[in-house]
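User: I'm putting together notes for a lab meeting next week and I want to include a structural view of one of the chains we've been expressing. I don't have a solved structure, so I'd like a prediction I can at least talk through. The sequence is below, exactly as it appears in our construct file.
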Amino acid sequence: MTKQTSQEYREELSAKSLAHLRMKNVYLTKKRKAELIGNLTLDDKLLLGAILNDTDHQIQVMEESGIEELDGELSFGNKTFEDGVEVFTNNKY
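Assistant: Thanks for the context. Below is the predicted structure for the 93-residue chain, given as structure tokens.
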């Protein structure tokens, strides 16, 4: 088993963060975006800046109050879902 040096780990983390930031239609919170950019090496920060300047690609930041996760109970017609699982109800009396 080979030990990974801190430089190799940093470069791998930077590559994964850059890949995440380059995804299209990904919504990030401001905190997550700052965290991902903070993981980048200087070269990857320069690359990301060049990509953003060269293309129409934008990193969209999710507003904290604008988009919320769906949770709880949802109904579609006669089917009800709670936390992603279909719930069967019998209302016959």
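A couple of points you could mention at the meeting. Residues 6-87 form one domain. Helices lie at 6-21, 30-39, 42-54.

User: Perfect, that's what I needed.
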